[in-house]
Amino acid sequence: MRLVTWNVNSLRVRLPRVLEFLAEHRPDVLCLQETKTDAAAFPHAELAAAGYVAADHSGGRWAGVAIVARTELGVADPAVGLPGEPAQDESRWIEATVGGELRVASVYVPNGRELESEWYAAKLEFLDAMARRVGELRGDDAGAPLPLVVAGDMNVAPSDLDVYDPAVFATSTHTSAAERTALRAVEQAGLLDAYRQLHPDDVGYTWWDYRQGHFHRGLGLRIDLILASPDLAERLTRVGIERDYRKGSRPSDHVPLVADWT
C-alpha cells in the first residue's frame, strides 16, 4: 500500500502536477489539502481519467481537503467536518474508508497566525478535537477498529529537529509548547509519526516559504505528517519526501510525503 499526503495550495493551479505525480508514483491513496476549489469545480472527471476516484470537502477559495484513491479500491462512507472543531465551515477534515480495510482522514490544521490570538486558540481547539476523534476511531466500542491513517498539513513542527532554525520561530506559531503538546495528544490517542518511525534522527522538511529562496537555502519545516495506527506503522517499508515537486513549473510550497507498507 502506498499513501501520500500533499498540500497542493490550489488544486486548480496544481492539477497538472498532481496528475503527473499520480502517473509517476501510482499511489493507492492521495490525501490533499488546501484544494481551494468549489465542490462543483472539483476535478472528478480528470481524476477518473487517471484511474482515481475522490471524496472531497470543498470550501471555495480557502482550505478544502480530499481523499483520492485508485478506482478499484474506492472511497466509501465519507464523513466531512470534525466534531467539535471551532469553525465548521472551513473544510479542514474529511475521512473515508479505502478498499474496505483502511480508514483515512485528510486534515488541514489551522495556521494559528499569532500567539495569544483568537486564531491560535482556535488552532488548539481544532487539535483537541482531532485527538478526541482519533480516540473514537481507535476505540473498540464497535469491535476491532480499522487501521487508521490521519495525514495532512498539521501546521506544527513536532520538534526542533523539524525546524531549520528554532530561534527564528521562538515567538511565533508552529513550534510553541502548547501546539506540540496538542499534536502529541493526537498521537497518544493511538497514532505514530510514520516519518520518525523510519527516520528517527533525520532532517526532512516538507514546506519552504516561497520568499527569499528558502527552498534553495534549505530553510524549511516538517509540518506535513502521516500519522498511522501501530498495526500499520510496524509494516512501514519506506517514508519519503518528494522534494522534486517543489521544483519546476508553479510548485506548491509543500511537497508530497509518501509512505509505503506491506
UniProtKB/TrEMBL annotation:
Site note Interaction with DNA substrate, residues: H254
Region forming the signal peptide: none
- Record-linked PROSITE patterns: AP_NUCLEASE_F1_1 (PS00726), AP_NUCLEASE_F1_4 (PS51435)
Q: From the Swiss-Prot or TrEMBL record, what is one GO molecular function term?
A: metal ion binding
- Pinpoint the Endonuclease/exonuclease/phosphatase domain residues: 4-254
Q: Where does the record place the catalytic residues? A: Y108, D153, H254
User: Where are the bilayer-spanning segments?
Assistant: none
InterPro entries for the chain: AP_endonuc_1, AP_endonuclease_F1_BS, Endo/exonu/phosph_ase_sf, Endo/exonuclease/phosphatase, ExoIII-like
Q: Which GO terms describe its biological process?
A: DNA repair
UniProt site positions, description: Transition state stabilizer: N155
Q: Where is this site: Important for catalytic activity?
A: D224
- Names of the cofactor(s): Mg(2+); Mn(2+)
The superkingdom of the source organism is Bacteria
**Gene3D superfamilies (alphabetical):** Endonuclease/exonuclease/phosphatase
Q: How is the cofactor bound?
A: Probably binds two magnesium or manganese ions per subunit.
Residues where Mg(2+) binds: N7, E34, D153, N155, D253, H254
* Keywords associated with the record: Hydrolase, Magnesium, Manganese, Metal-binding
Family label: Belongs to the DNA repair enzymes AP/ExoA family.
Q: What is this protein called?
A: Exodeoxyribonuclease III Xth
Say which species the protein is native to.
Conexibacter woesei (strain DSM 14684 / CCUG 47730 / CIP 108061 / JCM 11494 / NBRC 100937 / ID131577)
